[in-house]
Amino acid sequence: MIMTQLDFLPSETLAHILHCAADCGLPSLLALAGTSQRLHAIYSVHQLPLLQLALDASYGPLQDVIQLVTHNASQPAHLIRSAPLSFALMKTIIEVGRIAKRWEEIYPFKKWQGANSVHRRLLTSDERRALRRAIYRIWLYSKAFHTPKFSRFTRRIPQIQILRAKLLYGWPVTDLAEIMDVYAILRKVLAENVCPSNARVQKKVEARYGEEYANSLFFGNQAIGMVPHTQSNGATYYQHLPSRPDSRYLIGTHHDPALEAYGDDIRYVERLSDIISLPS
């Protein structure tokens, strides 16, 4: 009944309704455009502008995600790039944007953890947008400077430092503060869940099985994440550990929790910095 009444409205009014739906995000726009043939026809006429608005609302800021997906080694990272909106570019934006939106769920859990869990809440729409912007910019920095051309040993070269800093100079101080906040959360997730240290694994095992077993863990030089097996001819090969989350710290004949650790010395910090780093 409501759609029947909408069909009698002028096309300009329906176009404005579609624009309002686009401001609410891509799912709202596509859902409304598919409710009637007339709305779909008007949507088809204004498709690219509507999709641009919807993508910015769902995965924006659109300019920052475009800087990320269009970056390549032929241009310095700090140069502003513009690209005509095409369906191929929109597909890439959606793929990257969905990853950023997953962090909208992870960030509050890690930001307000432990004693601060009483302050945990959902992010507002403005905070979600700021979070995505910070993720895109950290991702762009890593994509530009975490390459064989910019190895760990080049970080102290003044020319390389200037090139890295040029990317940061283009962002306001308030945005840099947001980037450092999100960077701290990303690093925390890596250190605690993705690439835990020896001490972190030992603490997890101690919480589940007691101090005695935790102290008996041997953090040797075996291949990380691998279990040694001996063939009939005496040769040794390594088999990947299962990656099931519920089995990560379980004790068993084919799973040593110590093999999940990435070390506790300078090399561990270097590994973590190689994955994600920003200039101090």
Q: What is the rounded Rg?
A: 25 Å
Low-confidence stretches: 221-228, 236-247
Distance between the first and last residues' Cα: 61 Å
| Percentage of residues in DSSP E strands | under 5%
Write out the strand line-up for the largest beta sheet, numbering strands in chain order.
1-2
Assembly state (oligomeric): single chain
Average pLDDT figure = 81
What class would the helix/strand composition place it in? Answer: mainly alpha
What summary fits the major beta sheet? 2 strands, antiparallel
Number of helical segments with 4 or more residues: 13
**Helix-strand pattern:** HHHHHHHHHHHHEEH
Question: Can you tell me the number of structural domains?
Answer: 3
Tally of DSSP β-strands: 2
Principal-axes geometry comes out as: globular
Helix percent band: 55-70%
Sequence-ordered SSE layout with sheet pairings:
Elements lengths: L1 H5 L4 H13 L2 H8 L3 H9 L1 H13 L2 H8 L17 H25 L13 H21 L12 H12 L3 H22 L3 H12 L1 H5 L10 E5 L5 E5 L25 H10 L5
